[in-house]
Specification:
Number of domains: 1
Distance between the termini: 20 Å
Radius of gyration: 17 Å
Strand content: 15-25%
Largest sheet: 7 strands, mixed
CATH class: Alpha Beta
CATH architecture: 4-Layer Sandwich
Number of strands: 13
Number of helices: 7
Bound molecules: fe (ii) ion
Helix content: 10-25%
CATH topology: Purple Acid Phosphatase, chain A, domain 2
């Protein structure tokens, strides 16, 4: 399964063509698609493979009634995972979306999100995520899809959700997602939590962010936000990034960052996780 990190407008028909060539079982988008540019959503809508999207803080529109946001979500239709289970028959895994348009930092609703969804409280948001996870088949692995990751993954600037743009360095994750994860765990295993928002390259010349974490419950946390996700390498090849995860027999067996050439070949791969035992 492919995961597209924060796009910030970098998605065109060429990305659709590459994805067709790669032919993953599904594609997840972690949000910050196009700064309100609906051409990106329209392009994503042309994809024919199973697709799940959570919108980011840069996708919330710019009107306090939430009308633009309503339009984006309406365009996405079933692909939108805001506080809900993405229903599909294949691949055999469940994707549940967290709170849409999150900007991290604990719990905060923008005026656009309030305009569309109302003044959703922290507890209501937790309940929505837990309730959506409760609808997922327990026979399938569970993937949580969020724009910002949860609190609890560290307080350093380089932590998967650490604040890097100013001091003090703090945990900038989402509290509702963190508490929802704790509650879902009382019912079932969570295999993977995928998010973006906090870019890999750190501000203030602090290097690069940790993009992977596995907790003692076995849940894998993956930050997919390599920005920009399209680069030109030293030999002139245009490379596009996807995070990539593999499941086998209901188990997550590999997670990686991959840079692809236009013909679908891998130019560079960073393996983050490999479960050899489950792969036998
Ligand atoms: Fe963001």
């Amino acid at each position: 399964m492919a995961i597209a990190g924060d796009l910030h407008g970098a998605w065109t028909d060429k990305d659709n063509s590459l994805l067709k060539e790669l032919n993953p079982d599904a594609i997840l988008f972690v949000g910050d698609l196009g700064e309100g540019d609906i051409r990106v959503i329209k392009c994503i809508n042309k994809l024919t493979i199973p697709t799940a999207v959570i919108l980011g803080n840069h996708d919330r529109g710019n009107d306090s009634y939430g009308d633009q946001l309503r339009n984006y979500l309406s365009l996405l239709g079933d692909k939108d995972c805001s506080w809900r289970l993405r229903k599909w028959t294949l691949p055999p895994l469940s994707v549940v979306g967290a709170r849409p348009c999150s900007s991290g930092g604990g719990y905060y609703l923008s005026s656009e999100v309030k305009g569309l969804f109302g003044p959703v409280t922290l507890e209501e948001s937790i309940n929505r995520i837990v309730s959506a996870a409760g609808q997922a088949s327990k026979k399938w692995p569970l993937v949580l899809l969020a724009h910002s990751g949860p609190t609890g993954l560290g307080s350093d600037a380089s932590s998967p959700c650490g604040r890097d743009w100013k001091l003090p360095e703090v945990d900038w994750g989402d509290k509702d997602l963190d508490i929802a994860i704790d509650r879902i765990r009382k019912q079932r295993k969570i295999d993977l939590v995928v998010f973006g928002h906090m870019h890999h390259k750190l501000k203030r010349g602090k290097g690069f962010r940790k993009t992977f974490y596995q907790d003692h419950f076995g849940t894998v946390f993956l930050n997919a936000a390599i920005v920009p996700r399209k680069i030109v390498n030293e030999t002139g090849d245009v490379l596009r990034h996807f995070s990539w995860v593999k499941f086998s027999n209901g188990q997550l067996i590999q997670a990686s960052h991959r840079w692809f050439r236009a013909d679908g070949s891998i130019a560079n791969e960073e393996i983050l996780f490999e479960n050899i035992k489950s792969n036998i």
